[in-house]
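Input chain follows. Return structure tokens only.
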Amino acid sequence: MKIVLAGGSGALGRRLSERLRRNGHEVVVLTRRVRPGPVRQVEWDGRTVGPWRTELAGAAVVNLAGELVDRRPTAANVELLTRSRVEPTRALVEASAGLAEPVPVWIQSSTLAIYGDAGDRVLEESAPPADGPPQMAGVATAWEAAVQGAHTGRLVTLRTGIVLDHGTPALDRLWSLARWGMGGRVGPGTQWVSWLHVDDWLDIVDRLLTDTAPDALSGVVHATGPRPVPNAELMGALRRSVGRPAAPPTPAALVRLGAVLLRTDPALALTGRRALPARLLEAGFEFQHPDLDEALADLRARARAER
């Protein structure tokens, strides 16, 4: 099948385009700057409808476009995070309106951060979005609203957890902290982390794109593993994966101070969501890496092999 991928230059986008191309699909990446590579790229500005709109004819759409969330939660940055997601989505929706036939399947990226800081509540796809914080639930709610009206036969809103993949800033930073003896629990350590291995994320997207059954999944789907863990357990698994002993905790006050120095958002570490992939499990989806220790060991082995 032909698949138009917006946001294909990010870490997940590159992994996905590689997987789709390897599986024999025709992949077209919409990008603000065309770079040499094995996948065909078409320039767009991420805001307005242009000549790229012809690529949508007969194609599925995967929309991953959006700036990285790893930044201070200032009003300007919240506006940037929102605009970088809403504008590309609205442009795709507007372009789809001119199609003679609907996009057969449209996968709209979103985030489990739409539930804010959910405490110990178990979240399935029917859970309502939270009212805040604005850099999480606020951004995600606007992102999901922007896709309404898309001319598509099947729309999937994919609320994704923390995707673990080697070579990405998030996991590499966590591994570095563990190696340097700072791999203790963060804050209270009770905040839930909903995670999944990159292989499982790719399998989920592949399943959603290629499923032609009458009851193929649509609507909100959680892209996360079946076994979320508290932060303390995550940090313990990270230490084990790099062969480090127990480490002292990092108090919440220190996390907030460090976030200022690192120009990041302390809420990324201090809030949590205990989300389950209920609809995927009901549909019979099988995870390759449901166990955190095994997932991290696999990614460590891949990182070493690529050195």
